[in-house]
What we know:
Blueprint: E1 3-4, E2 11-12, H1 23-37, H2 50-53, H3 57-80, E3 83-84, E4 87-91, E5 99-104, H4 118-132, E6 138-143, E7 147-154, H5 157-161, H6 179-192, E8 198-204, H7 209-220, E9 223-229, E10 236-240, E11 243-247, H8 251-261, E12 262-267, H9 273-278, E13 294-298, H10 306-313, H11 321-330, H12 337-340, H13 352-369, H14 372-379, H15 385-397, H16 401-414, H17 419-435, H18 509-529, H19 551-566, H20 573-589
Parallel strand pairs: 5-6, 5-8, 8-9, 9-12
Antiparallel strand pairs: 1-2, 2-3, 4-13, 6-7, 10-11
Helix pairs in contact: 1-3, 3-10, 6-7, 7-8, 13-14, 14-15, 15-16, 16-17, 17-18
Amino acid sequence: MSIALLPEGLHFLRPWWLLGLLALPVLALWLRRAARRRSGWQQAVDAHLLPHLLEGGTATRRAWAEWLGLLGAALAVLALAGPSTGKRAQPLWQNRQPLVLALDLSSAMLARDLPPNRLAQVRAKLATLLRERSGGEVALVVFADDAYTVAPLTDDAANVALFLDALAPDVMPADGHQPARAIAWSQRLLQQAGFARGEILLLTDHADAEALAAAARARAAGYTVSALGVGSARGGVFPGPGGLGQARLDAASLRALAAAGGGRYQAMTAGDADLRALGVLQPQSSEGEAAGQMAQVWRDDGFWLLPLVLLCVLPLFRRGVMAAMLLVALGWPSPPAAAQEGAPRGTLWQRADQAAHARRLEGVAAYRRGDYATAIARFSGLPDADSQYDLGNALAQAGRYDEALAAYDRALRLRPGMADAIYNRKLVEAARQRKSPPPASSASGNTSAPRPGSGPPASGQKEDGRGQGSKDAAGKNGAPPPSPAQDRSGAQAAGKMPDGPPQPSQPSPEQALAQAQADAAQRARMQQALQGRPAGGAPMQATPAPRPETAEERERRLANQAWLQRVPDDPGALLRARLQLEARRRAEAGGP
Length: 592
């Protein structure tokens, strides 16, 4: 509702709110009287002496605040009235016609004049209709001797399509052909859903006089009845309850039905030309509005008055309220310093366990990128054994073996017997010894003694009976890391150190080759150790080889398959039971 007040086009979308302005003078009068009664001196001192005895500054400020409050109330009423000074484009609401599909499920649908039979063709046709129909609500009704609802009116056509495989003549409680009841039942569905207009599409092969009368009644009620002919003029044989029957398409009766219902008739074809001719793929609204058409509607500009309302009511705040709010804000407990320093972005408002989990995820991401410094910073300070284990792996990748060993020790103290930490600690300890400088030669001048740990195992050797059972930090969360950087101490420069023992001589080519092989084997073992843990932290298990099937197991499997094959493939069992219950209820009630 809108009224024009000014030639410039000022409108109020909700003008009845303007009646609230009539209450403002009453409110002002009440405030004035309340101000007079606020001071108890008026009852003890004469009125002409009060201005000389009482301080008037406070009363004056209070009066100004009250008048500003009244002005704010008036502005709030105007905002609620919905002032509008312009229009904006808005899509028109389009009420598309609902469609009720009334499908014949009598025994005649098993006729083979449409290969493989009429029922299969109708299922495919309904699937096409439900898939390509753009908008509108749709319902599915089946009929034989009586009509029943399979799916009520809904805008979810995919939900209706779920029932197509269950449609068969054997789901009906009784065989027959009553299209008049199908039309009447479809009309009832539309009326119960509150639609004044709609369309009924009858899928059958013929119509009788009662069906024509029902179509005329539906047309008088505002609903159109169309028909889609199923079958052919030559007909086909079908198995019925009393024996074989002959079913033919009676196009003349269906045309008469469509004429009586104010709809259209089309014979079913292989493509979708019949559906397009019937107009069921692009439903139109009852007003004939085109899709996408825009309309100009008044724009609600009342929210622009809200800042003025806030300014008017600002003096009504009591003195000291803002200071009290500031004190409350300053006294609010801050997060612990440990959670703020180095905490990942977005974790300051999380619980301690959530912040730790977020830090762990960031550490895993950094480990995947090879950014071991960031990974070490994220894993540091996390108290659980897995995090300390991951920290040890990150430190080992960075070449900080002593700190890695300390991290493994902390993990083992938190979880004694942690196999992954024990194994990786051994590898890191071996790498640390290999990285340490060689011992000084003896006084006898023997310079050919090997360094500690320089005797390498074979490249295929496994330590402690392990293969690839060791793990890494990022692997615990599903990411393999790059190979660890193994710093190998090379030969030291020749020459003498001041005040130091003599240095060993350069190794021979055979020693250099042996040393390179040892380093390669050590890197391979470290790589296996730091890439062996799957997601979730559980140790990796080797996939067992498939065991050949025994005769007893094969016999049991074949017996199970035989039992499964005996289970009947009956997708319409549930629908059949539902329709039988509905038929029994109608029989007991004497009608629908």
